[in-house]
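Before going further, learn to read the protein records used in this course. The integers have meaning only within a learned vocabulary of local backbone shapes. The record below shows the convention in full.
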Amino acid sequence: MLKLGKKQTLVMIKEVEFGVYLAEKMDSEEKVLLPKKQVPKDLELSDSIEVFLYKDSSDRMIATVNEPYIQIGKPAVLKVKEVSKIGAFLDWGLEKDLLLPFKEQAYEVKAGDSCLVCLYVDKSSRLCATMKVYGHLRTDSPYMKDDMVKGIVYDVTKDFGVYVAVDDIYSARIPKKDVFGKMRIGDVVEARVTAVKEDGKLDLCMRQKAYLQMDDDAEYILKELEEQGGSFPFTDKTVEPEVIKEQFQMSKNAFKRAIGHLLKAGKIEITTNAIKLK
């Protein structure tokens, strides 16, 4: 069976003026055209060749020896070439651009954007892209706790946190409690694996372990103190956790550790209602 959207190894069963026909076997009735300009010079009858199957501008299934940037079952980050009345068109390495319908967009994309998508066959048996990738990501990553990973944000939720595709293919999430600062779909992040769940999905954190992160946090707080005239109108005991998260992109515990570190180093002083530079 010919598989739209996937690479297949087929055999040449017939040569015509405008190319060659390929099929699974020499006696197969189902066949597909490989255009003449893509036929290798040494390809002969019954020879095998690996091709990718998609549909041309006339909506006919066609084979190509060109390497697509994406296949069914393999998510990929593609660039938006243009936006039309029916959706966005993505560059996927083939002559005919790939349609990303408006209803399959996680947000309104524009030309030049890069977005993580999966390939699917729509109701009209045409290949299209979707940004709804959650169910297509793999859960068999090679990563372990405390490994550093890189991925792209594909969903941001108020209740559950930020969803990330590690290496563009593995399912991961930054839990709500570990989300600091604003993150948007399409952002590329580097994070630490904090847990590998029983189902294989990863939990991530943008921050290092406490003892490694403390020096960076202390430097950041010093910089903020300098920019605010040398003092904060609160102490590490009176400030609200929400204020710390919004202003410093860290938890209250991390803030208190960094303040203690600065106090011990003699770089700050704490009064009844303020933190000041020395």
About this structure: Helices lie at 210-227, 241-248, 252-264. The chain has three helices and 18 strands.
